[in-house]
Amino acid sequence: QVQPVESGGGLVQPGGSLRLxxxxxxxxFSCYAMGWFRQAPGKEREFLAAxxxxxxxxxxxDSVKGRFTISRxxxxxxxxxxxxxxxxxxxxxxxxxxxxxxxxxxxxxxxNWGQGTQVTVSS
Length: 123
Hints:
The chain is mainly β. The protein contains no helices and eleven strands.
C-alpha cells in the first residue's frame, strides 16, 4: 500500500498561496494515481484534484480549477498541491489519497488516506 503523509498546511491570509506536499511511503511506480481531498467542519469531504503517476495527467474539481495545481515528483515519490488566491472558504483539513479503486478519478473511492493537514485562510 501507498501510505500518504501530508505536510505544508498552516495559516495564510486571503489571496495568499500555500503548497502542500504528500510523500508516499514506498515507490509509487505501481500506483495508478494520487490525489487530494479536503474536509471542512460540517461539510462533506470534497474531491479537489488527482494526478496519474505514469502519464502525469491531472484532473480537477470545478471549484478549484484555475487556482490549484497538482503535480508530482517521481524521484521523491511526492505529490504537491499548489494553492493560489486562497479564500476563507478554502479553510479545511486537506487529505492526500493514493491508489484509486478505478480510473474515474473525480468520483472513485481511494484505498489509502493520509491523516490530513490543516489549512486556515484568515486575516
